[in-house]
Amino acid sequence: MTRFISIVILLSTICSAVFTEETEKTTVLDLSAFMQLVCRHGTFKEFLIQELSLKYNRILGTPQIQLILDTTAHYTIALDSAEGSHLAGSVTLSSLFPASGTEVSAEYDTGRSVSGTVQNSSVSLKVEQAVLNNAFGTTNRLKELMAGNENELARYQILEAYEDYLTEVIALYIEWYAAYQNILYAEKSLEQSRTLLNLTRQKRQYNIALPIDVNKSTLQVLTAEEQLNKAENAYEILRKEVAMLTGFTSNEFSSIPGDPVLSEYNIEIDNEIDAFMLQSRTVKMLDLLTTMSRQELDIALDQLLPTAKVYAAYNISGIEYLPLENQSNDLELGFSVSVPLLNTGANADVELKKNLLEASILSQSNQKENLNLQLTTLRDTIAFLNKQLELAEQKLSTARLIVRDEEIRYNQGRSGLDDVLKAYETLDSINQSRISIMVQLHKSYIEWLRFTDTLIDENKQIILEKDLPKNNP
């Protein structure tokens, strides 16, 4: 693809901008201005909200550092002796560090001794570390990676939604432009038909033309009026839809479409397919899905391991509310192990994840082959339509020459009216075919950009090509 021009539409900025009154007065609404207006539509705002929520989804899907404060307190009133009344309670502060699988806690505890005559208290600090299941935070880090991949996949999917919507919007603009060209041609055709009718009537006055010729010319005018009426109706339907997308009411919107200026359809299929298969958004999404399947299997395998932890605790205890008197210190080292003797659910989950990974790898390979085929087919379609449009242009030029010659011959009395009407009919048919091919060609090229993930980049910057030779009827 050659001669790119970037139409910058960073939605978070442009969608908040206010279009000036000068834009509303513009007679011709070109594709660039049209897209700027459309980006203010509610659909784009919906996409933006979805993207803003991704960071919260990642937080919810990832184990986070937790800091928990737990307190208990009570006061016992001794009814037999006032000295027996006492305060008891505890304060515990604990924190979990998912990245390392480490849990740290500090506790203060106070209460009466067993004899009930002395106020005891203690302070302890404990560090606990997972060493088998989720060893040193392995599973938690995998979950964090998975959450990041899920976030990236969701972001790609939102970009795909942007691109799909833009493709529909641009296709609508192309149809609107074609409908407008149909009106221009129908008006010109009606004018020619009326000129022919006036000429036939003059000939009839001099008995050069027959009454049937006047009727045939009249029928030609009526047919041209019918064609114009259909073209205006089709244009009006599209105009109202364009008005809605650009934020105007039908009565407020009076712009006409400009020529959708794209680039010459010079697509180097081999280079673009190679680039697409290596670094396109679609392929990245397929790779992410396989990577996530592997991570899910690793997590499932980790769940088969016993839960084992080692810990170290340091304790200070003494009398009174602060353990300063009769103080004693001790260091405690230990471990805990929990072994599931029967865990059919975890085993089944591992087998399921293995099957899903294998299916994901096969699906990725099959989809890449299918993408290659679709790209080649689309390239061939564009090349075919480009050639068809070139031939249609040549046929249209030739048909116009024939119409002009037949009109001259009819005016000079060297040919009949039927020859002129047939030339008109041929010209109409060729023009309709040309416009249809032009619409298909434009849409196919936009589809190529969408399919190869080059309609917008990852910053939601719209990329369109320019300098397509104008095809005016």
Which features does this protein show?
single chain, alpha+beta, 11 helices, 18% strand
Mean pLDDT: 79
Strand order in the sheet with the most strands: 3-4-5-6-8-9
Low-confidence stretches: 1-26, 465-473
* Helix proportion: 55-70%
Strand content: 15-25%
Beta strands, count: 10
Question: What order do the helices and strands come in, and which of them pair?
Answer:
Elements: E1 4-7, H1 11-14, H2 21-25, E2 28-29, H3 31-38, H4 42-52, H5 54-60, E3 66-76, E4 86-97, E5 102-112, E6 119-130, H6 138-205, H7 211-245, E7 256-257, H8 269-279, H9 281-302, E8 307-319, E9 325-338, H10 344-411, H11 417-451, E10 462-465
Parallel strand pairs: 2-7
Antiparallel strand pairs: 1-10, 3-4, 4-5, 5-6, 6-8, 8-9
Helix pairs in contact: 3-6, 4-6, 5-6, 6-7, 6-9, 6-11, 8-9, 9-10, 10-11
Explain briefly what this protein structure is.
This protein is of the alpha+beta class.
Please, could you describe this protein's structure?
By secondary structure, this protein is α+β, with helices and mostly antiparallel strands. The chain contains eleven helices and ten strands. It has helices at residues 11-14, 21-25, 31-38, 42-52, 54-60, 138-205, 211-245, 269-279, 281-302, 344-411, 417-451; strands at residues 4-7, 28-29, 66-76, 86-97, 102-112, 119-130, 256-257, 307-319, 325-338, 462-465. A six-stranded antiparallel sheet has the order 3-4-5-6-8-9, with no helix packed on it. The chain has a two-stranded antiparallel ribbon with strand order 1-10. Strand 4 and strand 5 form a beta hairpin. Helix 9 runs antiparallel to helix 10 (344-411). It is elongated. The protein starts with a strand and ends in an 8-residue tail after the last strand. Mean pLDDT is 79; it is low at 1-26 and 465-473.
